[in-house]
Design a protein that fits this description.
Elements lengths: L19 E8 L1 H13 L4 H17 L3 E9 L14 E9 L6 H17 L5 H8 L13 E6 L27 E7 L5 E8 L5 H20 L13 H10 L11 H11 L4 E5 L2 E4 H17 L7 E5 L4 H12 L3 E4 L6 H11 L3 E4 L1 H4 L8 E3 L4 H4 L16 E7 L7 E6 H14 L7 E4 L8 H6 L7 E4 L8 H10 L4 E4 L1 H7 L13 E4 L6 H11 L2 E6 L9 E4 L13 E2 L3 E6 L12 E7 L5 E2 L3 H7 E3 L9 E11 L5 E6 L4 E3 L2 E3 L1 H9 L6 E8 L5 E8 L1
Parallel strand pairs: 2-4, 4-5, 7-16, 9-10, 9-11, 11-12, 15-16, 17-18, 18-19
Antiparallel strand pairs: 1-6, 2-3, 5-6, 7-8, 13-14, 14-24, 19-20, 20-21, 22-23, 23-26, 25-26, 26-27, 28-29, 30-31
């Protein structure tokens, strides 16, 4: 029996701290009466009804289906004990399996059977049960069960004493024996006086108040629909549902222009401003726009148009920036082919994406598969065929694919994520609108082209008059090279994964990076300790961003505040035109503070996976809460919970996926490739984390 893990506000102390408090509330007489009738019709007592409801609530809040609750029972089972004075109590453990899709009445029948069976054996001392089970002892929690329950059948008639006014006074609670206890007492008016007792070392009062509201909501739903599947019964308070809608009220108007049109508009507005800095060479907006138009015309002459994929294999530099813009201008779909990837992987991507054209340079051409339509940019001018008239950009088509980004696949086959124009345009404009990106800013483009975080580093600066600084080839993995590029080019905006950002703090060149004003963390959980050190070292704002490739780079963001509690910086609130949902295994939203899987909806969603309709249908599901018919959500597989202010906190994964250096990796992909080797009978890949939280993969093979 696994310990029940309720979402807490603080880390569990090493030893149990009994300091406690309680939240009192009332189950109204009408509701209590309907539940009593429900139980009577099912042959169950009010105790059994409320125990079943409480266990269902615990399952919802913990995400666990195996729930055990401790109950005190009278141990005066022998007639000879009746005249004796003293406390004759024993503890029995009532365990319920809440998996499956049965109704509440089905659950109640099981709880009734379990309770009656426990009463048959109530003379067995609880200490004997613990000794027999011999659970691994943990001084921070109670063994076998962590939650208590009691229903007191008190005398309903009010107490009257001659010559005295009598009022009931509830004693305060400053002690908690368990992680949580629910005490119910029948009142004279037919209502139930309820009290949730909790340890203050684990929980804030606000969380327990939400749990009380959640229980009342669940009891109301049970009374109305006892014969419907228990997992469909509503346990989210109305106040939470209203807050969810408020936090998802992110609608923001977007310009009716394509990304290419936005770039050319900026080039007309600031033709002499620096657009790209690559080493010692600076390219202004006018020169870049001319290069993009001419290259787009070449692409069009080579058969590139809407929904035609263009494989791009180039080192960082002005040519790479121009090529990506040219593909978008021609209406094509760019497929990044990272030069550092193995040739076999690049060949698979080219075939899987069915590219119309390959664009590369002479130094990389040998790594690519032979393709009948290949454009080598640094070949002789006559080979580049740039005699066609310059091409103007296509107008906005929100549904048109902009790029295909490949991510790790659990079967050993990378998945191509097809991202439409509207999704990436929404993300590209966000730092301009919300982070003040604009003229005078210089954004370091150091993320490898095969990782989606590179997309906004290329495009966001070029729609607002800022400059793209293309970092040296080693910048994404060498902190010294990265900081030297920041210092030399007076970079103002830098994005990185926390594991890399931490390394910057030990570099001597840090003192030369006073130009930095904004640090964006992405790809890994960001600790408050690291965020604080970065903020102080660079005197820069730190923003934590989160998002899977399937949601156009980022879905949420949160500015770091050193005064906020918590070990991790939240991943925050949804970006404009994005909706977030925290749901249980059945896809129902969970209360504030409860852990669930994050689903993302709105404009940011990818179209799906290239050529993988089955996988697309599995991961992109209907969004019943959206106002737009046919809207979808993406199931991220990430576990999160909401704070009271709506900010999302990252908790973990529902599967084995891991991020290393911000790159999403499915251990199953590595296992599949290892197992395919003729000398390997079986393989498994394990994730190990260091003291700083950095992840490493270790493969084990059976010959």
């Amino acid at each position: 029996l696994e310990p029940l893990e309720l979402p807490a506000d603080r880390r569990r102390p090493a030893r149990w701290d009994p300091a406690g408090d309680s939240v009192a509330f009332t189950v109204p007489a009408d509701l209590a009466g309907r539940l009593a009738v429900l139980g009577r019709d099912a042959g169950a007592t009010p105790f059994m009804v409320h125990l079943a409801a409480f266990q269902l609530l615990l399952a919802r809040w913990s995400g666990q289906a195996d729930v055990a609750v401790g109950v005190s029972v009278s141990d005066r089972t022998e007639v000879e004990l009746e005249p004796l004075i003293g406390l004759f109590l024993n503890t029995v453990v009532l365990r319920s399996d809440l998996s499956g899709h049965g109704s509440f009445l089905d659950l109640l029948a099981r709880v009734r059977s379990t309770t009656l069976d426990a009463y048959e054996h109530q003379d067995v001392p609880f200490g004997w049960v613990v000794a027999d089970l011999a659970p691994e002892r943990d001084p921070s929690r109670n063994p076998v069960f962590q939650v208590g329950f009691a229903l007191h059948n008190a005398e309903r008639r009010p107490l009257r004493l001659p010559g005295l006014d009598v009022a009931k006074v509830e004693p305060g609670t400053d002690h908690s024996a368990f992680d949580l206890s629910l005490h119910l007492s029948e009142a004279a008016d037919g209502s139930l006086a309820a009290r949730l007792i909790y340890p203050t070392a684990l929980f804030d009062r606000a969380r327990i108040e939400r749990m009380a509201a959640s229980l009342l909501r669940l009891l109301t739903s049970i009374a109305a629909h006892p014969d419907t599947p228990a997992h469909t019964l509503e346990a989210v308070p109305a106040t939470d549902l209203a807050a969810f809608e408020r936090w998802n009220r992110t609608a923001t108007e977007r310009p009716a222009h394509s990304l290419a049109e936005l770039f050319f508009a900026q080039a007309r507005a600031t033709p002499e401003a620096v657009a790209v800095i690559s080493g010692t060479r600076e390219t202004d907006y006018a020169e870049l726009a001319d290069r993009v138009r001419r290259l787009a015309a070449v692409l069009r002459s080579r058969g590139v148009g809407p929904e035609h994929a263009v494989g791009v294999a180039l080192h960082r530099g002005a040519d790479l920036v121009a090529t990506l813009l040219a593909v978008l201008t021609a209406g094509g779909v760019y497929v990044p082919l990272a030069p550092e990837h193995p040739a076999d992987r690049l060949a698979h991507l080219v075939a899987d994406a069915d590219v119309t054209l390959l664009v590369t340079e002479q130094a990389l051409a040998g790594q690519l598969p032979a393709h009948p339509n290949t454009l080598v940019l640094d070949a002789a001018p006559t080979d580049r065929d740039e005699t066609a008239p310059p091409l103007e950009p296509r107008g906005a088509d929100d549904a048109r694919a902009a790029y295909v980004m490949y991510t790790s696949g659990s079967t050993g086959r990378p998945k191509g994520v097809v991202v439409p124009e509207a999704a990436i345009r929404n993300r590209v404009l966000w730092p301009v609108e919300r982070l003040g990106l604009g003229p005078g800013d210089r954004v370091l483009q150091k993320t490898t082209i095969g990782f989606d975080a590179a997309v906004w580093e290329f495009l966001s600066p070029l729609v607002c008059g800022a400059a793209v600084v293309t970092g040296p080839r080693e910048a994404h993995r060498d902190p010294a090279v990265l900081l030297r590029a920041v210092a030399d080019h007076r970079v103002t905006v830098l994005q990185g994964v926390p594991s890399m950002l931490r390394l910057l703090l030990d570099e001597p060149a840090l003192a030369d990076c006073a130009s930095l004003r904004l640090l964006c963390s992405a790809g890994e959980p960001l600790t408050a300790e690291l965020a604080g050190r970065l903020r102080d070292a660079f005197d820069a704002e730190v923003v934590n961003t989160y998002g899977p490739t399937e949601c156009a780079v980022d879905s949420t963001a949160w500015p770091f505040d050193p005064d906020e509690p918590g070990d991790l910086v939240p991943i925050g609130l949804p970006l404009p035109n994005v909706r977030t949902y925290v749901v249980d295994a059945e896809g129902r939203q969970v209360p504030v503070g409860v852990t669930g899987e994050l689903h993302v909806g709105g404009i940011a969603l990818a179209r799906g996976y290239a050529g993988r309709g089955d996988l697309t249908a599995d991961r992109f599901v209907p969004d019943p809460d959206a106002a737009v018919p046919g809207a979808r959500r993406y199931r991220t597989g990430d576990l999160v919970r909401r704070r009271a202010d709506g900010a999302l906190e990252y908790v973990g994964r529902v599967d084995d996926q891991v991020k290393i250096g911000g790159v999403r990796i499915e251990p199953g992909e590595i296992e599949a490739l290892l197992a395919a080797h003729p000398s390997v009978a079986a393989a498994v890949v394990a994730v190990h984390r260091g003291d700083a939280g950095d992840a490493r993969l270790t493969a084990y093979a059976v010959p």
